[in-house]
């Protein structure tokens, strides 16, 4: 019991991004940082008053500390910008672990079996092989070459768990495996629709592409970038939109493609360069123009993809299990990270 409590208290603290001393300060002298350290090491148990205070400060329910951790997260591919601290990264990983624990728990109540199958098995060495892999995947998953309406929903339809979290802007996304058999992708809920779509597909590349282990990390990231761009704008599609060779491309054309296919202007131009529709010199000139124009860099005022990007499967499972009385309202609220009254307000049964 002490060990379990200790592990869960430490997980909740890391998830909140707090040091031992910072947590003690937030508890306003109720317990010292040395005592919290002893809780985490399983040397002491907090009393009920301290447990309630910990739950409040750490923004978790008290039953969080009693939940057995049955999920191991492995093979994490982490996309972030410089400036995201080690503490931020640790916090994100704990948040993801908590999300996956709750996701797999509701699936276990519904007796779901995990049977993900990767349709891409060939070893990837080059960008040309990435293009071929995308063509095979679009065919295997019956996606066609038109715009993908909802990337996150498409991933879940193909047995990949998707989680959206609200965290630091510098975090892009990550992917990995839960218990070595369940693939998952995490995106930043605060990012634009176009950015979320590209990030999710970049992470899909990490999950599916069997990239040659001799390649370095930068080369692997470039291949996953190529994969994401090709998924959003397959070779056949971008040639139809722009032609095979261009000496100049108008911003108006790029906005049209962005609004139709849900891919940023900058990613479209990178794709055009990769497929030699434009020259490297043209692309460099475009990048200089982007860096000199803050509005173009942020793409504010340069079109917007109106499609939706959301994932609702997790909450659908919660509502299903509640409606069929497989779980109680209280358990449903706990798994949803809601207060009981809040969950009751959202739940309607026929």
Commentary on this structure:
The structure is a single chain. The model has no long low-confidence stretch (mean pLDDT 94). The protein folds into three domains: 1-69, 434 Repressor (Amino-terminal Domain) (Orthogonal Bundle); 123-298, Arc Repressor Mutant, subunit A (Orthogonal Bundle); 313-346, no CATH class. The strands form two sheets. A four-stranded mixed β-sheet has the order 1-4-5-3, sandwiched between helices. Strands 2-6 form a two-stranded parallel sheet. The relative contact order is 0.10. Helix content is 54%, strand content 9%. It has 350 residues and is an alpha/beta fold. The two termini are 41 Å apart. The protein is built from 17 helices and six strands.
H/E topology pattern: HHHHEHEHHEEEHEHHHHHHHHH
Poorly predicted runs of 5 or more residues: none
User: What is the count of helical runs?
Assistant: 17
Number of E strands:
6
Shape: elongated
The CATH top-level class label of the largest domain: Mainly Alpha
Second rung of CATH, namely the architecture of the largest domain: Orthogonal Bundle
The percent of residues in helical segments reads 40-55%
Main sheet properties: 4 strands, mixed
Average per-residue pLDDT, rounded, comes to 94
What is the fold-level CATH name, i.e. the topology of the largest domain? Arc Repressor Mutant, subunit A
How many domain units? 3
Sheet-strand content, in percent, reads 5-15%
Structural classification: alpha/beta
Radius of gyration (CA) equals 23 Å
| Gap from first CA to last CA | 41 Å
Strand order of the largest sheet: 1-4-5-3
